[in-house]
Amino acid sequence: MSSGFEIKKVEAMEILDSRGNFTVRTFVTTKAGIRDFGDAPAGASRGIREAVELRDEDGGVRKAVESVNYYINYALHGMDVRYQKDVDLTMIKLDGTENKSRLGGNSIISTSIAVAKTAARALGVEVFEYIGGFRNHTIPVPLLNILNGGKHAGNQLKIQEFIVIPLGFDSLKEALKASTAVYKTLKNLITERYGKIYTALGDEGGISPPLSKTVDALDFIYTAVKNSGYEDKIYLGMDAAASEFYNERENVYEIDGSKKTPDEMIDFYKDLADAYPILYLEDPFNENDFERFSVLQSKLKKVIVTGDDLYTTNAKYLKKGIEAKSTTGVIVKLNQVGTVTETLEFFDLARENSIKTVVSHRSGETEDNFIADMAVGLNSDFIKTGAPARGERTSKYNRLLEIEKEYGFRYKRV
């Protein structure tokens, strides 16, 4: 082993995320003095099978920082940063729990990301090259959440994200230029109807107007698309995050002022897909209903029904979804499973089964743009990183623009 790649120190600190909460930033330093960092994002709506964040009673992450500075630091000392799988397995074994609750998923994922970035820096290559090799890559299509509901907003909308999808473009730059035009047009429409105060931003940069009906939100966005002149190039999508409005005791979904049975929800989504150019639908049912996902996917042939809380970036649950033919899309979130290695295994399983991949941020983010490089390195179909606003979101878009300009990679055709 070359001493230049050996880990000399792993050290963490508390930093602020985009919601003003503390999270973990971990630095990895090699014996050659090469150093980089990784941040742990945090979700507002979380799947029950996600890796567990280690948090203090006051909301801080001092315990997680201590996990890194003591246990993880000593366990990884002398290991080669280039051997990502060995590093990640060491942390998994050290934690010893199913959901990484001993050391904390936030401690482990921040370290895992830091190791990957430090290895790339030590080798003198771009992070996306380190992850995906030296070949032609593609730039993923962004899913831009421009109108917020659910836990990401303060309105009465139950659907968590209303998304625009710029497919019909030759470059990411053109796609983002069109998407920002729609975003600004939407703001103007909301201002005209409700006043400028209602263009305040939600957690992921989308606006959160005083709406309560799903169709009202879709009408606003579709009008913005048409008024911007992109009716034939920009499609719509939704992240329902349905577990958040599912009443388990009654087995109903409480949405748009009424209670709907699972079968009625299938009709609800089908009617929306018939009325609007919807291409993408995430978490339309609660996180345990693999069967209803499958039924809906069979009825919406042209819609990418996608699992997030259904799978939590865990290959074990994705295998179940593959058997049930539950979805044609998956969300890929590093901190859900807790290591880069497990994330890549999940991604590969999806790709092997012709399932569309969506590398995704969390609602609580930092300026770390690792997921942009990861999406390019893996040739992901999509990337989901919020509205074209707020620095923790634009840092990912700007990194993608930089890669596109420097390397000339083509924009993904989905």
Automatic annotation (TrEMBL):
It is found in: Cytoplasm; Secreted; Cell surface. Substrate binds at H152, E161, E282, D308, S360, H361, R362, S363, K384. Its cofactor is Mg(2+). It comes from the Archaea. SUPFAM superfamilies: Enolase C-terminal domain-like, Enolase N-terminal domain-like. One of its GO terms (biological process) is glycolytic process. Its EC number is 4.2.1.11. Mg(2+) binds at D239, E282, D308. The active site is at E204, K333. It catalyses: (2R)-2-phosphoglycerate = phosphoenolpyruvate + H2O. Residues 7-131 form the Enolase N-terminal domain. SMART domains: Enolase_C, Enolase_N. Residues 136-412 form the Enolase C-terminal TIM barrel domain. GO terms for molecular function: magnesium ion binding; phosphopyruvate hydratase activity. Binds a second Mg(2+) ion via substrate during catalysis. It is an enzyme of class 4 (lyase). One of its GO terms (cellular component) is cell surface. Its main location: cytoplasm. Keywords: Cytoplasm, Glycolysis, Lyase, Magnesium, Metal-binding, Secreted. Catalyzes the reversible conversion of 2-phosphoglycerate (2-PG) into phosphoenolpyruvate (PEP). It is essential for the degradation of carbohydrates via glycolysis. This is Enolase. It comes from Candidatus Aramenus sulfurataquae. The gene is eno.
